[in-house]
Design brief:
Layout: H1 11-21, E1 44-45, H2 69-75, E2 77-86, E3 92-99, E4 110-111, E5 114-116, H3 124-136, E6 143-148, E7 152-153, E8 159-167, E9 182-189, H4 190-201
Parallel strand pairs: 1-7, 2-8
Antiparallel strand pairs: 2-3, 2-5, 3-4, 3-9, 6-8, 7-8
Domain Nudix hydrolase: 75-204
Organism: Ilex paraguariensis
GO cellular component, one term: cytoplasm
Length: 204
Amino acid sequence: MGSSNYRGGSQRLKDLAQQLSIYKPLHPLNDTKNKNPNEDPTIRDTSDKLFPEEFDSNTESATNPIANQSERLRSNRAAVLICIFEGENGDLRVILTKRSSTLSSHSGDVSLPGGKTEKGDVDDIETALREAKEEIGLDPSLVNVVTVLQPFITKRGMTVVPVMGILYDKQAFKPVPNAAEVEAIFEAPLEMFLKVFLCQMRQC
């Protein structure tokens, strides 16, 4: 799945990639029986603002993590890139963006790179990588995609597929924000996301 480019990668990142590669979404990739996300308990409903504003639209959502193109276009699907790299202090970090203050909706919000499926996208991985390149200038060849996580459903019914990738050579990434969409590119500790997830699981 994706590139196997390990240039400049630490052993820690390689081990993480190996561990993540065995993850399988709860919903089978080829199961198309459940068309209504409200009837599918394996897909979570979320209002997390780490999803770009353009995801907010009324739609009937699909449930396949990696669906064929015609199904994904009908379902009004989107994908985001969770790009992990190793920080200067050896901690694992995630690339985030601050949305442009000129946008009409959710201006200034923090977001993962990503966006809606377009006609030429082969799968959710291609959607996430294409959007990341358009928004922040991240060359897809630098990202080793290791897994696709369980889809999220926004309050308005958009299926959002998180694609997880590893950036082994952070120095090779030269951020170029798309001024029309992105005001700033920054990073945050992966640990922060894990703490939020555990808190949600425990209903903090």
